[in-house]
Design goal:
By secondary structure, the chain is α+β, with helices and mostly antiparallel strands. It is built from eight helices and nine strands. Belongs to the aldolase class II family.
């Protein structure tokens, strides 16, 4: 029988596995906020509940990322029903995107969508992200693109989102911003961090002059050898996410509530 844990700020009972997922997701919200990747009360990061089929956690709509903590995350099912008695609503745009991907992409245990200035600017450029810097080469040939259809609140857009994602882990919503999918919170964190850096550097390079495009054969070598830049014995993003979690713990530990 699963261990029951009570959260501090709500009368919340959940399994140990769910509580650990809540802690990791809450930490992710605070790290994103610390790095300047939040957008007022908007945007969203979600993670599947590890021991409950068809359930995932997402931010309470109306709170800043700096207010998100483990206990106030909202648990919903793939049809949008609240499963944990939360008094908070869920952003409809976030639900439409995340529920569709969580339902149809089995490996997508964690998903984030942001509106950072750099990623939105590149999403609004003809040709999107170009292989003109170290980080951008990570993503060459590994991004899906989806034409802007307005705010994503219509369920029927989900099929086109899925088609344009294909077998990639990054979907660039043109004129809008990225959706990043991964097997874990640390994985989407390091993917977003690298993608953000790629976009920032591309914009800086374009402002300075004509970028140097990296040849395809060099990109192939770069992508082949990327795993060698990872901390030995760790999963993708694991060491990075742990380091940033330690950083936010020195600032404000309330995300653990």
């Amino acid at each position: 029988m699963a261990t029951k844990l009570s959260a501090h700020s709500r009368n919340l009972d959940c399994s140990e596995a769910e509580w650990q997922a809540r802690l990791e997701l809450a930490a992710c919200y605070r790290v994103f906020d610390h790095l300047g990747w939040s957008e007022s009360i908007y945007n969203h990061i979600s993670v599947k509940v590890p021991d409950e089929e068809g359930a995932f956690l997402i931010n309470p709509f109306g709170l800043l990322y700096s207010e998100v903590c483990a206990s106030n995350l909202v648990k919903i099912d793939l049809d949008g029903n609240t499963l944990d008695g939360s008094p908070y609503p869920v952003n409809k745009a976030g639900f439409v995107q995340h529920s569709y991907f969580h339902r149809h992409v089995p490996w997508a245990h964690a998903i984030c969508h942001t509106h950072t200035t750099a990623t939105m600017a590149v999403a609004s450029l003809e040709g999107g992200l170009q292989p003109v810097n170290f980080y951008a080469c990570n993503f060459a040939g590994r991004i899906g693109y989806h034409d802007f259809e307005g705010v994503t609140v219509r369920a029927e857009e989900g099929e086109r989102l899925l088609k344009n994602l294909g077998d990639q882990r990054v979907l660039m919503l043109k004129n809008h911003g990225p959706v990043i999918l991964g097997r874990s919170i640390p994985e989407i964190f390091i993917t977003h961090w690298s993608f953000q850096r790629a976009c920032e550097i591309q914009l800086a390079t374009m402002a300075a002059g004509k970028p140097i495009v990296v040849p395809d054969e060099v990109i192939a070598v770069h992508q082949r050898d990327l795993h060698e830049a990872q901390v030995p014995g760790t999963m993708p993003g694991g060491a990075d996410f742990a380091a940033w979690t330690r950083r936010i713990d020195t600032i404000d530990r309330s995300w653990r509530d």
